[in-house]
Amino acid sequence: MDVEDAFQTVGEFGPYQRQAVAVLVLTQVYMASQSMLIVLVGATPDYRIEPQRKENPSSQQELPQHVTFTEDIDSIVTEWFLIKQQAYKVSLAGSLFFAGLLIGNIVFGPLSDKIGRKPVYLTGLFFEVVFGYVSALAPNYEVFALSRLLVGLMNGGIGLVCFVLTQEYVGKSYWAMTGTLTSMTFAVGIALFGALGYFIRPWRSLTMAANSSGVLFFLLSVTLPESPRWLYSQGRTEQAEEVLRYVALRNGNTANNLMLQRVGVAKGGNCDNRHTGILQLVIHPVLRLRTMVLMYVWYACSLVYYGLTLGASETSGSRYVNVAMYGLVELPAYPLCIYFINKQWAGRRKSMASFLGLAGSACLCTMLIPENTGTLFSITSLALLGKLMVSAAFNIAYVYTSELYPTVIRNAGLGVCSMSCRVGGILAPFVPSMRALHTSMPFTVFCLSGLSAGCLGLLLPETLNGPAADTLEELSSTACGRVLESKAVLYEDNK
Fold first, then answer.
1. Average pLDDT of the chain, as a whole number
2. Which of 192, 276, 308, 370 lies 20 to 30 Å (CA to CA) from residue 262?
3. Which spans are transmembrane here (predicted)?
């Protein structure tokens, strides 16, 4: 039998799989707090600059002596006086985190395809916790900024592998659900971080508390098994059978006679064994076209998602309530995702494109209403609506992308798409500064990004109820549906 048949035997989503997925999904709470950390620890309170004693100060270092903060806030801004000419350092620290995510996606994705999901995940989580404590104890801004880069590097790598594991532990019919639970828990993590920030105001204490949950999740993750799908795709059939039998035993099933198809060494199934990993995304015609479209979709999702979320502290009202609200507003998006992506008339492709289009339209509407208006049609409410829509699109993009890539190259494909996604994250902290050109400029950027990505997403094939490809040969034989795919397959056949 193949892997899908084996999951029918051992259980697609049995008690043990629910426990394993729960550990991975709850880890998103920790990862969300790391992603949103700069929103609270980098908060800039109101301040005034008292009259200078000297008409021409001899150095910029004299400036802090004349600054008085009028809000009772403890942040990196108040400790290191990141105001005026130094204010860019707050956005820079946020961008360094997302730059780390980009590097982590590039490195960890192909690495987990090569040496395994579990060792890469555990190593990344361990070092993320270590570097998180460095952030909390940083003696100066330079160490803090470097630690955020390193935390981002680990966060980007393990986030990718964590998501893949939640899907490869279960049967394909549960992929949409586990993927959605992952994104939903990330949103809950944002809200919980806002609540944590309300009760723990000193930025070092907040950073320490937010990072400590990572220790618990690391200890819970140590006992997780390797992905049986990855083992099978690498030709390690006996080890895959051992994992599946263990899962069956913990599920209360008997699978003593479970035998997977013997496919030889490296079922990796590349059309040409000389080309592996990311290179295959370039030379394989089907993968190349899919990857180009998906990279832009992920970039747009990230730019709009993080641009709106990181702007929460700039919205009027309590910054802690705003952070929590921008997390909680995502929650209605996920039941919508589960409903639409499993309907034959909607599916993955149309649902993702529609939510992106609606997110762009919500941002467009913010430019058509006055700034001071009722709460129902205020800029804040429309921004929250845009956040809800782009959250749904982002969640579908994760599930959809994992189905568009075969097992042997799934992490590499997700890694490249996430790399593009992180470019959007790097730019997101600086988009609000475009208000200096025009107050509507940030929302213009979000609007155009969402609408264009939605249109491009319609070029991809539908994967609903389709078989999950394990090898590149299976991908070529099952590619269907869209104009891009038919051209790619024709090119492959002519070769």
1. 82
2. 276
3. 21-43, 90-108, 120-138, 144-166, 178-200, 289-308, 320-341, 353-370, 376-400, 412-431, 443-460
